[in-house]
C-alpha cells in the first residue's frame, strides 16, 4: 500500500512506479488523493487481465484518462463508455484495412523523401565528426503529422494548410498534453472551475479550442468539395475515402452528429501522428547507437530494392516489400502505463480481489522488462519479436481498447525509417546515461540529437 505523491514531476512518474513496485510487490494498492488505485506490474497477471479484458472485465478507461481525453479531443473513441465504444469501434476498424493503407503508401513515401531532403543541410560527406548536430523529433513529427492529416482530411485540405497552421496545431497539442499530464498530480486543480481560472488552465483551454477549430475548418472544406461533387484530391485508388469522408457519410445516415465528427477526427489526428513520430525517434536513437543493426537493415533494403535503393524519383516500397521486411519490425513500446477501470470484481490467482469500479494501472514499462519473458530485458534486441509472439508484450495495448491504427502506425514507421537509412548513416551525440524520456501519456524523448553522413551507394 502506498500513496500517490503530489508534485511528482512527470519526468519522475515511471521511476516512482518502479520504486513502489520494488517496495510493495507486483500488485500495489495506492491511495490517489482519496481514491483507491491498483498498480499491476506482474507479467502473468497482465496476461490474465488480457484474457479478462476480452471478456469485458477491465474494458473501461480510468476516470482521469477519460477527462484528459475529452479535454484534448472532445468526445471521441478514447473517452466513450464501453457500450458506445464498441459501436464506434466498428466503424473505425474497417478504415484501417490493407487496401486502404496500400492506397496511402505514396503519400507516406512522399513524406519520407521530404524529410530526408530537409535533413540534407546537416549531412556531411566524409567525416561524421564535422557534421552539424540536429534534434530529430521535430522532423519526425512534421512527417507523421502530414501523413495522418492527409489520411484524415484528404490531400486537398492538406495542400491548403500553411506551415504556420500545422506548426501551431502541433505546438498547441503539445501544450495540452504536457499541462494535463501535470494537472493529474495536482489534486487541488481537479475541479474544472478552479483549473480553468488559472493562467495555465486558460492557456490549455485556448490550445484545445484552436485544435478543435482546425477540425471544424477541415470539415467545412470537405463538405464544400462534396457539395461540388469533387473527389477532394484524394490519392484515389479503388474506393479509398479519407476518414472524414466516412464520418460525413455517417452523419448523412444519421449515425453521428456534428460534435461527434469533430471529436472522432481529433482522436484520429492526435492518436496518429504523435505516437508514430515518437516511435520513429526512439528507433532512430537505438539504431544510431547500434550501427550493426543499422547495417543489417540497409543490407536488406539493398537486396530487396536493387537499383531502386535510395532512389528519390519513384515510390519503391510496395505493400509486399513492406510486409516481408525481416529487420524493420522495430517497435519501441512507448506507452508505459495502460490505465483501465474494472467493470466487475476481479479475483486474482492469489485470492486477492480488485473490486469493480477501481482504476487499474497496468505498468507496461515494467512488464516489458520482465526477464521471465524478455532475455536481457534492457538490451535493444528487435529480433526477439520475430518468432512466436511474447504473451506479455502489449505495445498496442490489449483487449477492446487495443490500438485501431496499429497497422498504419507500423507502416508509417517502416517507411520513414527506411528513407532515413537509405540516404544517411546515423550517429547520436546522446549518451546512454544522459538519454531521458518524459512522461506525457507517451514516453517522449527529451531530445534525440543526431549526426548524419550521406550514404555512399
Ligand atoms: C506505431 C504507432 C502507434 C503506437 C505505438 C500506438 C499505441 C497505442 C496504444 C498503446 C493504445 C492504447 C492506449 C490505452 O489503452 O490506454 C492506442 C490506442 C489508440 N490508437 Fe494508437 N498507436 C500508434 C498509431 C496509431 C495511429 C496511426 C492511429 C490512427 C491514425 C492510432 C489511433 C489510436 C486510437 C483511436 C486509439 C484508441 C483506441 C480505443 O480506445 O479503442 N494509433 N494506440
Structure description:
39% of the residues are buried. The chain has one domain (2-454): Cytochrome p450. It has helices at 13-24, 43-54, 63-73, 82-92, 98-103, 105-119, 137-153, 155-160, 163-183, 192-195, 199-227, 243-252, 258-289, 291-305, 319-324, 364-367, 406-423, and strands at residues 2-3, 27-32, 35-40, 134-135, 338-341, 346-347, 353-354, 359-362, 424-428, 437-440, 442-445, 449-454. The termini are far apart. The longest helix is centred in the middle third of the chain and has 32 residues, at 258-289. It has 457 residues and is of the alpha+beta class. The strands form four sheets. Strands 1-2-3-8-5 form a five-stranded mixed beta sheet, with helices on one face. A three-stranded antiparallel beta sheet has the order 4-12-9. The chain binds protoporphyrin IX containing FE. Protoporphyrin IX containing FE (HEM) binds next to helix 13, strand 5 and helix 17.
Amino acid at each position: 500500500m502506498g500513496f500517490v505523491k503530489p508534485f511528482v514531476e512527470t519526468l519522475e512518474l515511471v521511476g516512482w512506479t518502479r520504486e513502489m513496485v520494488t517496495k510493495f510487490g507486483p500488485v500495489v494498492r495506492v491511495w490517489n488523493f482519496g481514491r483507491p488505485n491498483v498498480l499491476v506490474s506482474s507479467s502473468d497477471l497482465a496476461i490474465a487481465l488480457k484474457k479478462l479484458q476480452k471478456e469485458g472485465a477491465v474494458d473501461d478507461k480510468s476516470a482521469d484518462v477519460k477527462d484528459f481525453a475529452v479535454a484534448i479531443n472532445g468526445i471521441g473513441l478514447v473517452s466513450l463508455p464501453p457500450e458506445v465504444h464498441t459501436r464506434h469501434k466498428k466503424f473505425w476498424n474497417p478504415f484501417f484495412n490493407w487496401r486502404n493503407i496500400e492506397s496511402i503508401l505514396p503519400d507516406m513515401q512522399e513524406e519520407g523523401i521530404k524529410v530526408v531532403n530537409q535533413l540534407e543541410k546537416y549531412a556531411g560527406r566524409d567525416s561524421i565528426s564535422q557534421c552539424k548536430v540536429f534534434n530529430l523529433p521535430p522532423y519526425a513529427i512534421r512527417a507523421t503529422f502530414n501523413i495522418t492529416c492527409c489520411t484524415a482530411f484528404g490531400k486537398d485540405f492538406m495542400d491548403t494548410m500553411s506551415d504556420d497552421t500545422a506548426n501551431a496545431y502541433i505546438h498547441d497539442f503539445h501544450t495540452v498534453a504536457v499541462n494535463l499530464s501535470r494537472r493529474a498530480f495536482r489534486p487541488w486543480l481537479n475541479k474544472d472551475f478552479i483549473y480553468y481560472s488559472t493562467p495555465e488552465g486558460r492557456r490549455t483551454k485556448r490550445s484545445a479550442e484552436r485544435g478543435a477549430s482546425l477540425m471544424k475548418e477541415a470539415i467545412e472544406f470537405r463538405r464544400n468539395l462534396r457539395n461540388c461533387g469533387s473527389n477532394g484530391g484524394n490519392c484515389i485508388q479503388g474506393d479509398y475515402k479519407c476518414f472524414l469522408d466516412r464520418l460525413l457519410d455517417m452523419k448523412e445516415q444519421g449515425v453521428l452528429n456534428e460534435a461527434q465528427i469533430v471529436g472522432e477526427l481529433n482522436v484520429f489526428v492526435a492518436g496518429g501522428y504523435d505516437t508514430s513520430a515518437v516511435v520513429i525517434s526512439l528507433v532512430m536513437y537505438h539504431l544510431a547507437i547500434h550501427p550493426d543493426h543499422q547495417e543489417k537493415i540497409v543490407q536488406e533494403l539493398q537486396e530487396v530494392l536493387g537499383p531502386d535503393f535510395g532512389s528519390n524519383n519513384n515510390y519503391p516500397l510496395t505493400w509486399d516489400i513492406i510486409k516481408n521486411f525481416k529487420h524493420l519490425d522495430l517497435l519501441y513500446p512507448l506507452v508505459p502505463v495502460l490505465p483501465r477501470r474494472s467493470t466487475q470484481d476481479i479475483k486474482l490467482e492469489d485470492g486477492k480481489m480488485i473490486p469493480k469500479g477501481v482504476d487499474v494501472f497496468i505498468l507496461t514499462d515494467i512488464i516489458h522488462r520482465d526477464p521471465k519473458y524478455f532475455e536481457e530485458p534492457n538490451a535493444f534486441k528487435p529480433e526477439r519479436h520475430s518468432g512466436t509472439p511474447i504473451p506479455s508484450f502489449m505495445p498496442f495495448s490489449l483487449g477492446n481498447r487495443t490500438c485501431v491504427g496499429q497497422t498504419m502506425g507500423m507502416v508509417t514507421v517502416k517507411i520513414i525509417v527506411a528513407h532515413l537509412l537509405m540516404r544517411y548513416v546515423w550517429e547520436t551525440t546522446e549518451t546512454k546515461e544522459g538519454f531521458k524520456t518524459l512522461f506525457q501519456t507517451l514516453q517522449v524523448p527529451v531530445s534525440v540529437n543526431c549526426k548524419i553522413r550521406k550514404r555512399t551507394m
